[in-house]
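Database export, one record per block. Field names are fixed; values are copied verbatim from the stored entry.
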Amino acid sequence: MGLYDRFALIEDVIRDPAFKDFGRLLFPVEKQFYCGEKLEQFTMVFYNYHDPAKTVEIVNSLKTRSLAGDKVFFDIYSPEEKLEDASKANTGLFFFRGKPGAKTAICIAGGGQMFVGAMHDSFPHALELSKLGYNAFALIYRPGAHAMEDMARAITFIFDHADELELDL
């Protein structure tokens, strides 16, 4: 499977082996909050701006990096924690690498009371920051009451792995 164009099916992106077991987190897990079968049709409720070219660029950037052996997604909870609380399975950090040793940012999408709108909110920002050389993370968190807990866990993860990821915090 090659890179995507605007006519690619969202389900094909989600199931792409390059995205292993985290492809489902590229788009809102709560499918009732988005519509469209193809990348060019992808829209989310409460969003009136949609840029199909940016959506394609984001998924292709992540796929290219993943296929090159770069780790583009990090779990913030252990397998044991996810077994204990299944809602933690739908969390994690997408990593948009900049330059080694560069400053780091965390981008957090809106929609947090009902869904995580990363494809329109945090992914575009993280991608652009990485193009400028910054290391950027996009947090996928649990909507609602646990969002701050997930944010705290993400910050802890980033600090705990700063040396191996060559981050300047």
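Remark 1: DSSP finds five helices and six strands in the chain.
Remark 2: Residues 3 and 55 are 12 Å apart (CA to CA).
End of record.
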